[in-house]
Amino acid sequence: MKTATMRKSDLKKCIRDIPDFPKEGIIFKDITTLLKDKGAFKKSVDLLARKFRKERIECVVGVEARGFIFGAALAYKLGAGFVPVRKKGKLPAKTKSVTYQLEYGTDVLEIHEDALAPQTRVLIVDDLLATGGTIKAVSELVKNQQATIAGVAFLVELGFLRGKDKLKDLPVYSVIKY
Question: Which residues are catalytic, by number?
């Protein structure tokens, strides 16, 4: 299908369900099938960019790893810089870190300590919003650098997990909702 005629509902059809992954009872939303479809990938990035094109985004912060895919494409489309947020020990220069709760245990995310200047207008991007814990942690990293969060963007939102509830103080946009 041509990108110009593709709708959000068409994008949803490009995402494959994988039952019982990573564990029994979970239906994993596999976006790799959307990514390999050039029209669907382009439409996804275009929809995300359209939502934020008037927000004067100076830097896009992408969350490891699939957030890098959409984050870098959005940074290019918006004429902004790109900053990666990575798991502990993956960034080469001095970092700031935040520990956050997972369903079972904790994890650590890091950003370079000089990644964002104060008042930089930032768009945080990841592929999927589930419980909201990861993005809540990333928003803390961004706020600790005194940057301004202009928005948070996702390709997919799993609304039934109520992740948006943890992000009430942030403007959240999702292209596709389940």
Answer: 66, 103
